[in-house]
Specification:
The protein is mostly helical. About 65% of the residues lie in helices and about 5% in strands. A two-stranded antiparallel sheet has the order 1-2.
Amino acid sequence: MEKELRLENFLPYQLAVLSNTVSTTVARAYDKRFKVSIPEWRVIAILGRFPGLSAVEVAERTMMDKVAVSRAVTKLIKNGRIEREFADADRRRSILNLSAEGKVLHDEIAQVALRFERDLVDGFSEEEMKSLTSIMERLMARAKLIGPP
């Protein structure tokens, strides 16, 4: 470990730069082809896998800011990509589901996303991918354990 902070060698910075680079690249593809932002895609993706969630539950599962989820949900409802119902027991709790158009969009973007992922890791061995997954899981667990500084 370094004794002096050098931003370019600081692991949290390197992870942020990597994440931003990958997200920006994929965001351009989603926006250009489907007119969908990253937050909108994440809402669509999570509802495709877990239908019937509230916006709060979407935020929890995606680890996105509640305001970003709310904006994405509002836009997706306006564009007819998701539908909102209200729970019978608690009229304040909304239930979100993909519309028919949203399901088609989900399936189309999912194929692009999977192709992007394949291209991104092209040349990595199966062993390297297992190591990468393990390292990311360990870093996530450590980050949750130590919490904010």
